Amino acid sequence: MGHVAKRLLLTHGVNPLVVEIDEEDNNDDNILVDLGKTVINKEKLPVMFIGGKLFGGLENLMAAHINGDLVPTLRQAGALWL
């Protein structure tokens, strides 16, 4: 489902940084720990960080898009210049 999140952000003119996590590789657990010391398990992926803060998963992203909160959030984080 990460492709859905990436496509949505690209349609808004945002060029997201994508970090691929291999579900089979336990070494990727270090990446998850390093992401702001936030507890994230692989079943909750994809997760989005906007402006360096955990925004949430795909459901949060889609909900923000539908209710009109996504663009203001991206602007506030400096990801959009419109």
Order of helices and strands: HHEEHH
Mean pLDDT: 81
Number of strands: 2
Strand order of the largest sheet: 1-2
CATH architectural category:
3-Layer(aba) Sandwich
The DSSP helix count reads: 4
Q: Give the class from helix and strand content and strand pairing.
A: alpha+beta
**What's the end-to-end separation, in Å?**
27 Å
Domain module count: 1
Strand count, sense and closure of the main sheet? 2 strands, antiparallel
What share of residues is helical? 40-55%
How much strand? 5-15%
The CATH H-level homologous superfamily:
Glutaredoxin
- As a whole number of angstroms, the C-alpha radius of gyration is 13 Å
Overall geometry comes to: elongated
Structure commentary:
By secondary structure, this protein is of the alpha+beta class. It has one domain (2-77): Glutaredoxin (3-Layer(aba) Sandwich), CATH 3.40.30.10. It contains four helices and two strands. The chain has helices spanning 2-11, 29-34, 58-67, 70-77, and strands at 47-50, 53-57. A hairpin with a 2-residue loop joins strand 1 (47-50) and strand 2 (53-57). Belongs to the glutaredoxin family. CC-type subfamily. InterPro entries: GlrX-like_pln_2, Thioredoxin-like_sf. Keywords: Cytoplasm, Redox-active center.
